[in-house]
Amino acid sequence: MIRRFRREDLPRILEIERDAFPKSAYSRYTFLYYAKTIPDNFLVYEDDESGEVQGYVLFDDDGHIISIAVAREHRRRGIGTSLVRAVLRSSGGRAFVEVRESNIGAQRFYEKLGFRRVGRAPGYYEDEDAILMELVASPSLPC
Hints:
Layout: E1 2-4, H1 10-20, H2 28-37, E2 42-46, E3 53-59, E4 64-70, H3 79-91, E5 94-100, H4 104-112, E6 116-121, E7 130-136
């Protein structure tokens, strides 16, 4: 089930974050900032049976995906796709994201959902460029 972030989710979110983004993991304070400033757009995927948080997404009203991650042991089960669909429902069917140039897995994930490359942001991550990707919802990925 997808639901809004709760403060007690933070330890698990930080664990997922550190594993997913070892070069640039967000801090506890960054997540608390987003929880306060965009509470409706900080969503977690919680397993219905165990109650375990297995992924999260942070996004702006316009569909800008600030961060999304799924716990390594729960990837390739549709959780990321479900989280992107939640973004599309909230943003009127549009989403865009920056992805590390070296993160081929993430690029393939977004391409599979119908995102297309629309540009590059040199030095976006200080040590690396970002690939800019965008999606306007289509029948292949309904909201």
